[in-house]
């Protein structure tokens, strides 16, 4: 097999992370910060207050304690020293009762290359009783989005900042084209310095689609393919659990029908049952 050429750099130069300063959103912040450092990107952090903006906003979220643990700032480093370390961080806030509308307005004015959002995994009736802000913002902004479920640890060690990415699951279908998900998985391996990473491609059907794809070859990067049968969402979630994957990367086309609107797209249904973060990449319009 010849080695396909590919751009090793992740295409994320602007990263946007909405936060409510809660413990639930902390893991998503950790991932946004790690990816910002690894890609030398600009990180924008935004908080939306429902009524009155908090006066101490500029002190949150505090990044210096994290950067000290990761040995990026010295032990006596302050928030003011962050910019001196070469890390570009901007903070924004808004007062709005509808966070989805406020975030979409902000992203329409200042587009991002990657959204990093904490998400609660509501499903069924519970989904209709709670606002699914993360899904709605990702769908409305048409931005690549890293969803970090609130109960998972993810693929970044919060104490050291070291990546723990070992296995990535990539669902494959004829449409949308999954090649972007494969390329981004390879770029993640290079950018995060993963010594060994397995990309597990799962397809419901025959193997013709799998044989038509390009698999970037790098030291420590291994590709495995699987042909499965059954409901695609059940297959993805079952395979992810069986192989204890650290990340799911998939290309998504959003909603196509009234049924999708009611129960969610394939990606959204996978997200509600995933035991790890999910990186959703919108298909070209």
Describe the secondary structure blueprint for this structure:
Blueprint: E1 14-18, H1 26-39, E2 42-49, H2 64-69, E3 88-95, H3 99-109, E4 114-119, H4 124-129, H5 133-141, E5 145-149, E6 167-172, H6 179-191, E7 197-204, H7 208-211, E8 221-228, H8 232-242, E9 247-252, H9 258-263, H10 266-273, E10 278-282
Parallel strand pairs: 1-2, 1-4, 2-3, 4-5, 6-7, 6-9, 7-8, 9-10
Antiparallel strand pairs: 5-10
Helix pairs in contact: 3-5, 8-10
Question: Can you give a write-up of this model?
Answer:
The chain has 285 residues and is of the alpha/beta class. It folds into 2 domains: 14-149, HUPs (Rossmann fold, 3-Layer(aba) Sandwich), CATH 3.40.50.620; 167-279, Rossmann fold, CATH 3.40.50.620. Helix content is 31%, strand content 23%. The protein has 10 helices and 10 strands. The chain has helices at 26-39, 64-69, 99-109, 124-129, 133-141, 179-191, 208-211, 232-242, 258-263, 266-273; strands at residues 14-18, 42-49, 88-95, 114-119, 145-149, 167-172, 197-204, 221-228, 247-252, 278-282. A 10-stranded mixed beta sheet has the order 3-2-1-4-5-10-9-6-7-8, with helices on both faces. Helix 7 (208-211) links the parallel strand 7 and strand 8. Helix 3 (99-109) runs parallel beside helix 5 (133-141) and helix 8 (232-242) packs parallel to helix 10. The two termini are 32 Å apart. Residues 122-130 and 257-263 have low confidence and may be disordered.
